[in-house]
Amino acid sequence: MASRTCLLFLLVAFLAGALAGDVIEVNRSQNQREFDYFALSLQWPGTYCRATRHCCSKNACCRGSDSPTQFTIHGLWPDYNDGSWPSCCYRSDFNEKEISTLKDGLDKYWPSLSCGSPSNCHGGKGSFWGHEWEKHGTCSSPVFRDEYNYFLATLNLYLKYNLTDVLYKAGYVASNSEKYPLGGIVTAIQNAFHINPEVQCKRDAIDEIRICFYKDFKPRDCVGSKDLTSRKSCPKYVSLPEYTPLDGEAMVLKMPTDREAL
Ligand code: U2P
């Protein structure tokens, strides 16, 4: 009886979460249903990097004056129209050699903004790129069936749909004092790309903006974009924080090796 009550409670809690709009990640292993669309998720380094507490060589927040000042890539995610997404669809261990010719572009536009080693799909720890390939890239077939094409297409999309530039031209620039209307930022993106993006905030700071695409890479609305009031993570006025990298001396003092940073 007790275990029945417990099961019922878990079921109700699960359904309540789903109905409240919590996203559901589907780990479909081999039997994945084909995804519906792509979300190109772009992170704002000013928001991410100001939480930096220690440095290591792989963390782009620690590049001093070369730290990124534009949106960088978080990932290209195959998603379902119901708000869930597949993950870890088949075993394909990340091999950095396959993308060695893309490394300069990836270091610049798709850097890790932390020292942590995210988990891969099989219980191990790996690089940011390895995590994104194994968790999301493997679910992007039949559009992509290999690492090289997945990373190359993501870089090309990022360069073609230059979000930082769109916001800059509309007057939305990095600032530690300005607050901008969320509606104005969304309108600037709508006018440039003719789609509704998805926006995520950490408190009042823009954290990520997602631009979505059909499988043929024509832009389309993101599922979580429907109306402004449902963008529960952002207030009406938002910021795009500037990031002031740790100064040179502090960087040296705080720069453990990658091993120590794990
Ligand atoms: O939003 C929190 C984390 O959930 C994963 N996510 C979110 C939306 C989506 O469409 N697809 C998706 O995978 C991301 O996990 P990550 O790739 O970072 O492991 C996102 O960070």
UniProtKB/TrEMBL annotation:
Leader peptide range in chain numbering: 1-20
Key words, A-Z: Disulfide bond, Endonuclease, Hydrolase, Lyase, Nuclease, Signal
One Pfam family from the record: Ribonuclease_T2
Keyword Signal: yes
Coiled coil: none
InterPro entries: Ribonuclease_T2_eukaryotic, RNase_T2-like, RNase_T2-like_sf, RNase_T2_His_AS_1, RNase_T2_His_AS_2
CDD domains found in the cross-reference section: RNase_T2_euk (cd01061)
Classification via PANTHER family: RIBONUCLEASE T2
Family the UniProt entry places it in: Belongs to the RNase T2 family.
Protein name per Swiss-Prot or TrEMBL: Ribonuclease 2
Species assigned in the record: Camelina sativa (False flax)
